[in-house]
Design a protein that fits this description.
Layout (H helix, E strand, L loop, with lengths): L1 E7 L5 E9 L2 H5 L5 E9 L13 E9 L4 E9 L1
Antiparallel strand pairs: 1-2, 2-3, 3-4, 4-5
């Protein structure tokens, strides 16, 4: 799965989050196995507070639960 999303921080700074995830979609869709993801953030390099995120790699895992129906993620930033 390839995702590219436009998001914003709590202090209204807009950025792009892009990631690819891999996993067995049959078992993941049944809530039995996670997907593993790797991604990056693209943010205005002139933003002094968040520009450092342009030099990081995100990794994590996503898990689907059925009760309640929720897709949740654990993500980590590698600097």
């Amino acid at each position: 799965i390839n995702i590219r999303a436009a998001l914003k921080t709590e202090d209204d700074v807009r950025f792009y989050f892009e990631y690819i995830s891999r996993g067995d979609m049959v078992t993941h869709s049944a809530g039995k196995t996670p997907v593993i993801l790797a991604g990056q953030i693209d943010i205005d390099p002139d933003n002094k507070k968040y520009a450092w995120l342009n030099h990081t790699q995100l990794v994590g895992r996503g898990m689907l639960t059925m009760e309640p129906l929720v897709q949740s993620y654990e993500m980590y930033v590698l600097v």
